[in-house]
Write a structure and sequence with these properties.
heterodimer; A: 595 residues; 24 helices; 2 strands; 77% helix; B: 457 residues; mainly alpha; two-stranded antiparallel ribbon; NADH-quinone oxidoreductase subunit L (chain A); transmembrane helix (chain A); ND/Mrp_TM (chain A); NU5C-like (chain A); transmembrane (chain A)
Amino acid sequence: MIAALAGTPLLAGALLLLAGRRTGRAAPALGVLVAAAVLALAVAAAVTRPATRFALLPGWPGGTAIDGLSGVLVVTVASVLLAILLFAAGGGYGARFFGLMLLFAGAMLVTVTATDLVLLLMGWEVMGAMSYALIGYEWREAEPVRSADVAFLTTRAADLGLYAAAGFAVAGAHSLALPSLAGAAEPWRGLAAGGIVLAALGKSAQLPFSFWLSRAMIGPSPVSALLHSATMVAAGAYLLLRMHPLLAATGWAGTLVAWVGAVTALVLGAVALAQSDLKQLLAASTCAQIGFMVLGAGAGSVSGGTAQLVAHAAVKSLLFLCAGAWLTALGTRRLDELHGAARRYRLVGAAFGAGALALAGLPPLALWVTKDEVLTAAGDRSPALLAVGLAASVLSAAYSTKALFAVWRGTRTDGAPVPVLARVPLVVLAVAACVLGVLGSRGVADALGIPGGTRVNGLELAVSGALAAVTMVAVRFARTVPAPAWAVDWLFLERAARAGVVRPAFAAARALARFDDRVVDGAVRAVARSGPWAAGLAGRGAELRLDGLVTGVGRGARRLAALARRPQTGLVHTYYAQAAVLLAVLVAVALLAGW
Amino acid sequence: MNENPADVAPELCVLIAAVLGLVNGLFLPRTRQWRVAVICAAGLVAGLAVAAVDATRPDLVVFDAFFVDPITHVTRITVLGATLLVLALAAGPVRDHPRESEHYVLILLSALGAMMLGASSDLLVVVAAYLLASIPAYALAGFGKDAHGTEAALKYYLMGAFLGVVMLAGVTLLYGVGRGTAYGTLRAGLADAPSAAVSAGVVALLAGLLFKAGAVPGQFWVPDVTEGSPPAVAAFVTTVPKIGAFAALLRFGSEALPPGGGWPALVAVISAITMTLGNLAAFGQDNVRRLLAYSTVSQAGYLLVPVAMAGRTDLARTALLFYVAAYAVTNLGAFAAVLATGRDDLAAYTGLLRASPPLGIALVVCLLGFVGTPPTAVFVGKVLMFGAAIDGRYAWLAAVAAINTVASVFYYLRWIVPLFRRPDGALRPARAASAVAVAAALFSLALGIGAGVALTA
């Protein structure tokens, strides 16, 4: 069942990539069909909850399984995939695009259903590689490829934590199964937790890795929609939610994760508010919203984090698709050039409005409930966390409003029409963005079998809703929204990474290359030079004597050989004489020997 | 006294085949004389079969003149097998020759002499066997009636006559001081005999046996006969009589002499001189038959090592018997290759490996076999020989043999290396001789690899 679920998109994607242009116009239809089949399989799997046990490495049992958490996730991934591929079907993308998207989604499905670290790592790595290919989809231009490099190298560097975690798991728990990690012996448990947290933060674009998400915006909008909603960045959050027992067991890891999530939500909220590019705004808001999920994982609210993940997936894929629709139709993603876009395209505008309001956390839309479930759990842990979280939700209301009014202000008449096929998923996703808040209710979470449910604090809900409404009104009437340089430039994180990591790495590489050239290579050359020198010495000194000895032996043997042929005179009388003498000598020998 | 003729049935088979061959040859037209070869071969095969059956029976003495024991069995089987190969080699060149049947019969009679030599338990029988083995061989050496052949036959005969007379004198002397000629009697009688008389007698007796073995001081005929007589005859006289001679030497050393004499030292000195002389003289040879002749002299030197150790270690008998069989096969293989190419100069063998791969490989196997390269039979023989020397506390002899073995690589390689070069002329090896060479090479490998089986049997 799970093999079919993950295998279908992987196989179909690989075949599409192999077939390439030969599929022609059939590629979009094939992609959508496969996505629909995957959704059906995902729903069936979420209902039947299958589990398969097998050992990828002999002696290290593992496998795949679907429980409450992964059941929700596979359905989410499959739904978002179908919606996005449906949207992209009208966008003129070819077989390579659909193949990569399917492979990417398949890898994500492997990741969320894996129960051991090896399989998880395989899914995780394939997902990373596919993200590289998708961000650099327009590979003929230099900038997308550079951005893909940045994104891939950043996530890949953080991924090393997962490898380290696998090693520590083997050392500490003698098992690669995910549930066994919480029971590992110290210090291996702490080290494994550190590795997993590192990998998850990198994948989720949390601080300090957030900058790669900004660079990833250069990819096509459907790619952004998939990467930033139900997959890739969500994978990090999923891993932290999945490994919550381990985080809780170590003590420090849960607190660390909670604070990283909260701070990311706050700071990247500010970054989002400062952006003047719609996709960059949405990307920063993705970091901020994922920050809430990470906060939930750290604070122990698995159901809250999961609900936030699902609701955010719907909202963010909707918003990215709307941005993509406008980008295609109007040729811009700058907020000040999108004035009137919503009025020009009313359906897209309405859908975007629903998504933006949900993102703002306005009651009773989806994110209002799910975010507050996380915040309630955070408040139980520490009032400071609650305060930071509330501040972050104020910021999210602010940037949502900024985007919302940017597209609804003014009127315009230009622009190409949005295809009908692209409108269908927008409507569906908009509805989902409005109603998915039910996931936040405890009953639903329990029914789905997701642990760690918290009762939502009514007072907190009211405060948060009121804050969102007030902020929206404030932003509506504010003359200007502050946009400090640090926020516009994503906290200079990329520059910092370049200065702090990339340049030292290159400097060290150059230094090592010099060391290699001068010292190692020099030593080798010196050895090579000393060889002939020593050989010359040996040739002048020892060789002559040895050679003389060998020549002497040869000459001696030659002389003896000539001597040995002397008795063979060919004359019988000399034979007789020799034989007689020899026999006499032999008699003497025999006598001497003792007869 | 056991006088059952069935106990010498293999010898009788050969004798009957020889007589039948001779009689048939008288009445057969020249073009049908090949039937004599068939008769002789049948006699040899029958002899082999009987000898193989005999080998499973307990040891005994026949007519007070022959031992039937493991030495006899191995001598018989080796002589019969080797003679069969020689017959196959000789059949081609003498086909339709006016004296074709005589050729086969002479070969058989000489082989019979070799078999008797190895089995005899009495000095007088040894002398008779010596004459039987030698006289047909003289005739064979001059069979071609050409200048070289005649010279070779004459030298062979003169050396044989001289050393034979010396041997007879030795037998007389030993009879005088030992009060008998049977080995058992001699062993008892020589114990308190004057040492000068014994040593003179033993050395004189050795003169004849060493002549047959081709060892110093009876080695003079070997190069001349090998080069001068027809190749098949050369192959025969450097192989078959030697088998009997070494068996007789071993038997005399271990059964006719009282323990504790000068025998080991005497034979060890002869052995060392023989192998060294043979190797050194082979160094500069450009004629492959002369090279092979000296090679057989040096091999005789190695074979004398276990003879010297006779009675000192049980390994001596095993080593000698295995080595002599291995030597016979290898030597016949090398001579067969010479016969197949029909050329005597070393340069003619350039590129043989490409011209005729099976023959080339067979020759390489035989030559490497002479060196003692595993897994050939001579390798096992040499290992046993070294073991016997060290076991008999004659380490210096083992050292001399080892140095000689290393030195011998030189002239064998002088022959092997040109084989791998590009051929410069057309080489058309004779088919039958090539087949014999390949068979001998294969048998040498089989004997080497299956040495464990052969040694336990």
